[in-house]
Design a protein that fits this description.
The protein has 853 residues and is of the alpha/beta class. The protein has six domains: 5-178, Rossmann fold; 186-356, P-loop containing nucleotide triphosphate hydrolases (Rossmann fold, 3-Layer(aba) Sandwich); 360-416, no CATH class; 423-528, no CATH class; 665-746, no CATH class; 750-827, no CATH class. Helix 1 (10-20) packs across helix 2 (33-43). An eight-stranded mixed sheet has the order 4-3-5-2-6-7-1-8, with helices on both faces. A seven-stranded mixed sheet has the order 21-22-19-18-17-20-23. Strands 9-16-13-10-12-11 form a six-stranded parallel sheet, sandwiched between helices. The protein is elongated. The chain is built from 29 helices and 33 strands. Helices cover 36% and strands 20% of the residues.
């Protein structure tokens, strides 16, 4: 057995764990914690005889299998006997197996079925820094079990890069151990690259690694996804042939055998192209060079909009450290990072935990089965946001998994038995009940796995018909064609991904075996379900993604109000209603609409039949802004999404008045300003309040105006009818007789000028009243008029014969004595028919023009 850094610390690890029944262990990549610590705990007798087995949790299926294989090899054990594993649809261990390597989801389901965890004496959570949703949930459930019914349960949390203190506090101040030192040093260098995940960048980096000459070890290249791996592999073909390299892909979409090949020794030098599944736990013997593009794809869900996102983004510094560590497992190594040191300093310290970015529906279902009526009261390690929890709870209710009191339903418990998202569990249950387990399993597999159609820029598109009822049924037919072709590589020429199709077929078969155990499951061996029945199953699984087409054959509005746009390859172009199976934000298009590649037609009758409680018939009265009056509307809606609308329903007079008032009240101030007499009266009252506060004039603000407007709407059916009425009397009615008298006296509406005319005053906030009057009408007036107990002088706008201002003044006597004569000189010749006396103080005021005196 190869010595590893952790070996020297195993005795202390065992002692601390035995003493406190828990431990938080931080050790760098390559230290050996995954394979050595569980074995040491079992062999040292830390576990009780009543519960002799240890569970080792891994975040990924390929890592779980690899860890079990390596533990067996290092100890000379038989896989499936002393050590074994269990992942989704695959189990290899027996009743005597002491070390069981599981993925976290498997453990969480086991906890629901057996909350006492009978036979399990210890649980080791490995790679905790990845903070998968299942890991967070498992830690919280295990703590609750230990605190309530199993105080002997051992909990060990391990990682290379996690912050140990929060975990220690969560586990009642569990001891923390740090094991320093990697087996061999890793030299890190930086090569900034514009498109680091491109095939060209990968080839250049591999050529640089090969040019070193002194390193004959294997090369591990990290890329963000299977498609980048496929393109890079194709481009590396000539170089690999020239150098005798064995190019091997490693990602989650491969078969078990294909995933094992990169982990096994080879006579040829290996060039492994991997996603981040090779970042932790896996040991690829012989790797001395790591080439890291620094990118990964991160899945997330927007709980407010109900949209999925799969975004390409930068990895964190913690992930970069993990990746570099792959090069120093068995010998000194090097890591070539395709970004700059400056960019490295700007990376996030760690990836955002899944609990803050992914769908929590499955987690909430587990907690309800656990007996937690309200997940908000659960002892989370890191609580999710209220918005994410509410979205998960709502979806469970819509799927029928949760009742109004927050309790799990019998249907929800059936969903929990299926190793799929609750959505797909609902689909499988419906299909099994209708007697078509295999077809339901095929649809669920198509929805849960990578798309079997390949849409690549510049490549020949898939041969699908132009119009149809469901993109999912198109793929169901193409899956059958792929099986008939035995998943031949030639399928790529027809736009099909043979690897993805093979994976879907495998998952389908696994789901068939699981679904047949459902209560009431039937199998109609000699029948095929009709198209409508299968589309109903799909609708049951996606009750929150119903779309009504709007605007064109490719656009629509989804429940919640979000706009969607069908991708060009979608065949669902005719149905008025459809289900958006994969709405995703597409920021590249510069639009707020969600992009939908998978859609499935839906009938309005199905909605009323499948979700009767969610379909509402209402008669409402709304204000039609275009027609400027209330109208009656009969609506049929589904979870707030309008399905049908009749805008010509009769409206009773009282309803019309009420709707008119409700629309206009928030706009009351503007409405009164549009009525000239009302606006002038309000301006006078406000002037009086500001100038003579001792009068205690009433305040008529927006709220009071809204009340008055509501009174005015009584008996009215439209804005036009309201405007034909009189608003001013309603305003005046707010004043007492004495207040009205004071208003007319102290802030008069108009003044009588020497010509005998009554000229209206204009009141504006913060300014003195304005009297705009022709100059000839003021002859004989010696002083400026004043209002408000003579406290405020009126601002005179003296107009010429053309009614344009020739002077603005608050001092009329000064104007007569000085400026008048210049004005007279300027205008006398232009307007000879008007009076321009030498002495305006003694001249007779004239309302009309006359011959010059």
């Amino acid at each position: 057995m190869t010595p590893l850094p952790i070996d020297a610390h195993l005795a202390e690890i065992v002692a601390r764990t035995r003493e406190r029944r828990s431990l938080v262990l931080v050790a760098p990549p390559g230290a050996g914690k995954t394979t050595r610590v569980p074995v040491a705990l079992v062999k040292a007798g830390v576990l009780s005889p009543e519960h002799p087995a240890l569970v080792l949790l891994q975040p990924r299926r390929v890592a779980a299998r690899a860890a079990a294989d390596r533990i067996a090899a290092e100890n000379g054990w038989t896989l499936g006997e002393e050590v074994g594993y269990q992942i989704r649809f695959e189990r290899k261990y027996g009743p005597r197996t002491r070390i069981r390597v599981l993925t976290e989801g498997i453990l969480n389901r086991r906890l629901i079925a057996d909350p006492f965890l009978e036979g399990i004496g210890a649980v080791v959570l490995d790679e905790f820094h990845e903070r998968s949703l299942h890991t967070d949930l498992a830690l919280a459930l295990l703590r609750e079990i230990r605190d309530t019914v199993r105080d002997d349960l051992v909990i060990v949390v391990m990682s290379a890069t996690m912050d140990a203190e929060p975990v220690s506090r969560f586990l009642a101040d569990s001891p923390v151990m740090h094991v320093e030192g990697r087996t061999f040093p890793v030299e890190v260098s930086y090569r900034p690259t514009v498109r680091p995940s491109s095939a060209e960048a990968v080839v250049a980096a591999v050529e640089e690694a090969l040019a070193a000459g002194d390193d004959q070890g294997d090369i591990l290249v990290f890329l963000p996804g299977a498609e980048e791996i496929r393109r890079a592999g194709a481009r590396l073909g000539p170089l690999a042939a020239q150098q005798g390299l064995l190019v091997l892909p490693l990602h989650g979409g491969l078969s078990t055998e294909e995933q094992r090949r990169p982990l096994c020794p080879s006579e040829r030098r290996k060039l492994v192209l991997a996603t981040n599944i090779a970042e932790t736990s896996l040991t690829i013997d012989g790797v001395r060079t790591v080439i890291d593009c620094g990118l990964a794809r991160f899945a997330s869900v927007d709980p407010q909009r109900g949209l999925d996102r799969l975004e390409l983004g930068r990895i964190s510094r913690a992930s970069a450290t993990q990746r570099a560590g792959r090069a120093g497992r068995t010998s000194p190594g090097r890591c070539l990072r395709l970004w700059s040191e400056r960019e490295h300093r700007g990376l996030a310290e760690a990836d955002l935990p899944e609990i803050h970015r992914v769908d929590l529906c499955g987690t909430a279902l587990v907690l309800h089965a656990w007996g937690q009526a309200d997940p908000r009261g659960f002892g989370w390690y890191d609580p999710p946001t209220e918005q994410r929890l509410s979205a998960a709870e709502d979806l469970l209710t819509w799927l029928g998994a949760r009742d109004a009191l927050g309790r799990i339903t019998p249907l929800g418990r059936q969903m929990l038995e299926l190793p799929v998202h609750p959505r797909l569990g609902r689909l499988l249950i419906a299909a099994a009940f209708d007697g078509f387990v295999r077809q339901g399993a095929a649809l669920a597999a198509l929805l849960s796995e990578k798309d079997i159609l390949s849409f690549q820029p510049g490549a020949a598109g898939p041969r699908v018909s132009g119009r149809g009822s469901s993109d999912l049924l198109v793929r169901l037919d193409l899956l059958a064609q792929a099986e008939q072709a035995r998943f031949s590589p030639g399928l790529r020429d027809r736009g099909l991904d043979p690897g993805a199709a093979r994976r879907v077929a495998q998952i389908r078969d696994d789901l068939v075996r699981t679904s047949r155990r459902l209560p009431g499951a039937r199998e109609s061996w000699n029948e095929e379900p009709d198209e409508e029945l299968m589309l109903r199953w799909v609708a049951l699984a996606y009750p929150d993604r119903v779309v009504r087409r709007r605007g064109s054959e490719v656009t629509g509005v989804m429940v919640g109000g979000r706009g969607v746009r069908l991708a060009p390859e979608s065949v669902v172009r005719d149905a008025e209603f459809f289900v958006a199976l994969d709405p995703r934000e597409d920021r590249r298009g510069g639009t707020s609409e969600a992009r939908v590649r998978l859609a499935s037609a839906l009938s309005l009758d199905w909605l009323e039949e499948l979700f009767p409680d969610a379909v509402r018939r209402e008669r409402v009265v709304r204000f039609d802004e275009e027609r400027q009056k209330p109208v009656g509307v009969n609506t049929l809606s589904y979870r707030g999404l309008p399905l049908r609308e009749d805008r010509n329903a009769p409206v009773a007079p009282a309803e019309a008045s009420r709707a008119l008032a409700e629309f206009l009240q928030p706009r009351a101030a503007a409405f009164f300003q549009e009525d000239e007499p009302a606006a002038a009266w309000l301006a006078r009252l406000e002037f009086l309040r500001q100038t003579l506060p001792d009068l205690d004039a009433p305040v008529i603000d927006d709220g009071v105006l809204a009340e008055i407007l509501a009174e005015a709407c009584a008996g009215k059916r439209s804005v036009d009818e309201l405007k034909r009425g009189q608003l001013l009397p309603l305003l005046k009615g707010r004043l007492t007789y004495a207040q009205s008298q004071s208003l007319d006296e102290l802030a008069p509406e108009a003044l009588v000028v020497p010509s005998g005319n009554r000229i209206r005053l204009t009141y504006e906030p913060g300014r003195p009243p304005v009297l705009a009057v022709r100059l000839q009408e003021l002859f004989g007036w010696t002083e400026t008029p004043r209002v408000a107990r003579k406290r405020v002088a009126v601002l005179l706008h003296l107009l010429g014969p053309n009614y344009r201002p020739v002077q603005v003044t608050e001092d009329l006597s000064s104007f007569w004595a000085t400026a008048y004569f210049q004005v007279r000189k300027d205008l006398r010749a232009r307007y000879p028919k008007h009076s321009w006396p030498d002495d305006p103080l003694t001249a007779r005021a004239e309302a009309k023009g006359s011959r010059r005196s």
